[in-house]
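Assemble and predict.
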Amino acid sequence: MTTDPDRAGPKPDRAGGPPRSSTQIDRTPGPRVDVCVVGAGPAGGLLAHRLAERGHDVTVLDAGPRFDMGERARLDRMERTLRPGHAAPEVWEMGGARDAYSTGRRSYPLNHTRVKGVGGSTLHWQGIVMRLHESDFERGSRGEGDADWPIDYADLRPYYAAAERGLGVAGGSDNPFAPPREEPFPLPAFPPSYSDALFAPACEELGITMHSVPGARNTEPYDGRPVCDGYGTRRPAGPAGGQYSGDVHVRKAEAAGARVVDRTPVQRLTVDRSGERATAAVYATPDGREHRQEARQFVLAAGGVETPRLLLLSTSPEHPDGLANSSGLVGRHFMDHCFAGVGGRLDERTRQHHLGFNTRESHQFYETDDPDVGAIKLEFLNYAGPSPLDRALSDGRWGDDLLDALRESYGSHVGVGALIEQPPRAENRVRLDPSRTDDHGNPVPRIEWSLGDRTRRTIERANEIQRTILDELGATIAWTVGPDSTGPAAHHMGTTRMGDDPATSVVDARLRAHDLANLWVASSSVFPTGGAMNPTLTIAALALMAAENVDEAL
Amino acid sequence: MELTRRDALAALAGGTTLVGTGAAVVGRGPADPGRDGSAGSAAGNGEKADPGNRPIRFDEEELEALVAVAQVLYPSKVAGVREFVETYAAGRFERRSGASPTAGVREALQTLDERAREWEGEGYAALDPDARERVLAQMGANTAESDPRGTDAERVRHGVVDELLYALYASPAGGRLLGIENPPGWPGGLDAYRRGPDGRLPERWRSTDGRAPTGRRGGR
């Protein structure tokens, strides 16, 4: 067994960060509410906002803190991200006993890939938001997995549009591979970069179509938030709020009357005597006490790891293997996207690292006739090669020697990245690790994640395409991230899959657990397959769909 | 290249500092990098005074030591280091007051000064340039990991060396040396990334003003 590298957790000195939420906050449960939501990330926030607007009494519980989102605090977090001396998970106070985990043979940097607290993992995301393609809903039938989605693109389409309006997505009409849409993006796309212009002739020669990248980042002021200020960082979000993060809708939910209580990790859900209805979320508070929040409906929106973990922790005589787990599939089919990339150098300046995100990509290789490979989403990098700031802070030289080194290392890099589809595999899973417990004595999540042959072949295919582009560009190839060096893209999916058959899925097409009348899941954990698109827009759309269905049930 | 107070204020504006430093006040927002390669002015953007937000300054000895370290770290062609560091330090101290990294800078400077006295017989700022570099190297501040809670060398690396390198290279002043006027950590807006090394939009997208060639927003 391997253990997480960041198990030491945040050190006592929380430099520059806000105080942990006050212990004076009333975290005792209220009377039975209409809806109890577990998780205050983007899914929980969007859903709670929608339901509170409809007049429902909503309580949201989150294991993590309510962060100081003031400009100074966010700048301090950005600086800690950019400067050495702080482990990445520390920036958002991840790590330690609360977030302990273990992995199988292949390591998985779980606490680098998630944030607990109001806003969730969108506090450190890159803000890339596109719709799944129509083909993504039927990849099982195409031999790329063992299950289709029980809904199709048309079912989700209105919710995608609503999600784009909610997040404030900047996008363009120039993607010929994108699924049909009914209305323009809320904001115009980010214009292409100088680096994109270098790629364009090579791609034209090769017949590869480049197009814009939808982003939850403002090209114009939107929803009271300013234009993206171009900090040039990949994360965290810009200090002024020009990039969407989930706390936006948590605040809207609160304004609409929802109650949001931080630092209340839910320990388990309880059920009634019939075992058919959830009755309460049992949660802990910082003072060491446990409380029960009762509700008519429960929604789990705690991501692809903690959602199945909470179900597995919620055992009872009626549900000895965990809640909503009559299929035995809770925690199974854990998926991520894999990164593939090739980079090199040109004999000219390429102007990298002015932005922390990409402005052109290609979905041309997403659908393929080759039965041996899966979906590939190509990305033309705006941040290829070492960042000059990273290099300045890690080089060890100084003065003119350092300047010479920086001039040598920065200036002429180019790179093409890709997200790679990982088909669902039953052996990839989130399970409970009874050998190790968290700060409340619960077994920690154990992440068992491996790559199958198909994923490896798809990565190799992406590398071939990437090398072809760089060869055409005349680049000297310097690095390759291939099947042996790939890593996860921090997209946790698949662990409470949706489907029509209770024997082969955990939630139904309305996102309600097959086994319980009042338990819903709004998370990437319901994805039966994950395609190769960044998942957050689909998470948001599903959350809005779940809100409609919960509203109907109330 | 001449570093100016304006460059330091711009570097601070990357940190959105609102602090009075004499008559100069930093506003927030990106400086226009300027086609001539100048840093532009952050102070001209949303400038406002905050009389209740007085700067807390390092004492003279500490400032002298910071300037002395910067003269080792910064390229020799960079002039105006003193004014840059003094302005930057005043703003940084204010912004981070109450947060440990500021105290970390002060503690790291004390450690550096103690080593200088021990090995060279004088306080750090009083040393000649060779001796300044020697002390930093001898204590291992060049090879140490950066750690605000680590050994003496690790704390000096974090609190002094990285602090000053961050000031320069996360700002347009340092970026100009490398051909990146909007380096990571600097809110340089949404224009610089589109321009070539000559400051111009690429020919192929000039006719569309760099917008997505097939139009705005989409819808099909």
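Confidence is low (pLDDT under 50) at residues 1-21 of chain A.
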